[in-house]
């Protein structure tokens, strides 16, 4: 959570605690959190989830509430599970290579084994944003683009 808030500040966005919802990392948690977010009169135009199952639950809730993805809301998952590209629309997600994560984990264990009193060692794993059809311009932005000669296909 702290890293997320720092990232918001780094890119110039204001942390708005009412938009942070905790879930259970499952489809049901994504449904509950997204329903709560989209029921608010001051709702977000995009949702970043902790994993792809949460994003799929968010998609289900948004569709049940009558929202269109990505016209009304963009949803981004995290981990790029196998079903991310076969759901409709395909999920935009942040790919975290599991083998690289496992390698970093075992490197950290090996480091702790040989240096048991060290703290704060950092290990990086390269991620990749996989843009699919779950994301697009914010709804209000899209409406403003609808003028002669401007294509709005997303």
Order of helices and strands: HHEHEEHEH
Please tell me the CATH architecture by its name: 3-Layer(aba) Sandwich
The neighbouring-strand order within the major sheet is 1-2-3-4
Overall structural class, as computed from helix and strand content, comes to alpha/beta
CATH class descriptor name: Alpha Beta
Distance between the termini: 31 Å
Features:
alpha/beta, Rossmann fold, 4-stranded mixed β-sheet, 38% helix, disordered C terminus
Concise synopsis of the structure shown:
The protein is α/β, with parallel strands linked by helices. It has one domain (2-139): 3-Layer(aba) Sandwich (Rossmann fold), CATH 3.40.50.2300. Helices cover 38% and strands 10% of the residues.
Write up what this structure looks like.
It is a single chain. This protein is α/β, with parallel strands linked by helices and 154 residues long. It has a single domain, classed as Response regulator (Rossmann fold, 3-Layer(aba) Sandwich). It has five helices and four strands. It has helices at residues 2-10, 27-39, 52-64, 98-114, 139-145, and strands at residues 46-48, 74-78, 92-95, 128-130. It has a four-stranded mixed beta sheet with strand order 1-2-3-4, with helices on one face. Helix 2 (27-39) crosses helix 3.
């Amino acid at each position: 959570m702290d890293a997320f808030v720092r990232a918001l500040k780094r890119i110039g966005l204001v942390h708005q605690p009412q938009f942070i919802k905790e879930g259970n990392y499952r489809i049901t948690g994504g449904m509950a959190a997204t329903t709560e977010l989209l029921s608010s009169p001051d709702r977000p135009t995009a949702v970043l989830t902790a994993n792809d199952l949460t994003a799929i639950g968010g998609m289900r809730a948004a569709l049940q509430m009558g929202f269109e993805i990505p016209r009304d809301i963009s949803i981004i998952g995290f981990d790029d599970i196998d079903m991310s590209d076969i759901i409709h629309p395909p999920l935009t997600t942040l790919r975290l290579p599991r083998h690289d994560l496992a390698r970093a984990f075992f490197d950290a264990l090996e480091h702790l084994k040989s240096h048991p009193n060290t703290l704060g060692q950092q290990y990086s794993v390269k991620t990749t944003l996989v843009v699919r059809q779950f994301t697009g311009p914010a709804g209000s932005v899209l409406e403003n683009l609808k003028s002669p000669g401007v294509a709005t296909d997303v």
